[in-house]
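Q: Make up one entry.
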Amino acid sequence: MAGTRAAARYAKALLSLASDKGLAEVVNSDMTLIAATIETSHDLNETLLSPVVNATDKNSVLGLIFKDVNALTSNLFDLLLTNNRIPILFQIAVAYNKQYNTQIGREQVTVTTATALTPELEAKVLAKVKSLTPNKVIIENIIDENIIGGFVLRVGDVEYNASVANQLTKLKRELTLN
C-alpha cells in the first residue's frame, strides 16, 4: 500500500512528541476517532484521496470534522498539508494506534468466528491468548459466516485456524491426492 512507510514514520514522530508531552493517550484517542471516521465515511475517504480536491480544502474539512481534537493532532493536519501528505492520514492513524499499543504493552488479537462471541467463549479465548502473549490483550471479533464454525485466532503474526472450512479444505486436499 502506497504511503505505508511514510505513515509509520509520521506516526512514530507523533508518538514520540506526544509521549514527551504526556499526551500519548489523548492523541491515541484522536487517532482512533480519525481512523474510525475515515473508515466508515466513504465521502470523507474519497475527499481525502481525491487529486481533484485542493489540499487546503481537505485540511479545512479535517478541521471542521475533528474540531475537538488535541492541538498536536491539529498540528499534524497542518504538517500533512505542508508536505502534501493528507491522503495518508488514515494510515498514519492506524500506525499510531499500533505503535501506541506496542509502547504500552497492549496487543490486538483478532478472533474470526461464524457468529458473535459469547461472553463465555470470549473468556476462554482470552485465557488461551494470555498463555501465548505476556501483553495486555484487546480482542476484536470478526464475524465471517464462510468459516462455517470454529474460529481463526490471530495473535501478532501467528494464526491458529481451527475453522470447519479449513478442516474441510484439508480433507478435500487429502481426498484429491489419493
Summary: The mean pLDDT is 90. Residues 4-102 form a domain with the Peroxidase; domain 1 fold (CATH 1.10.520.20). The radius of gyration is 20 Å.
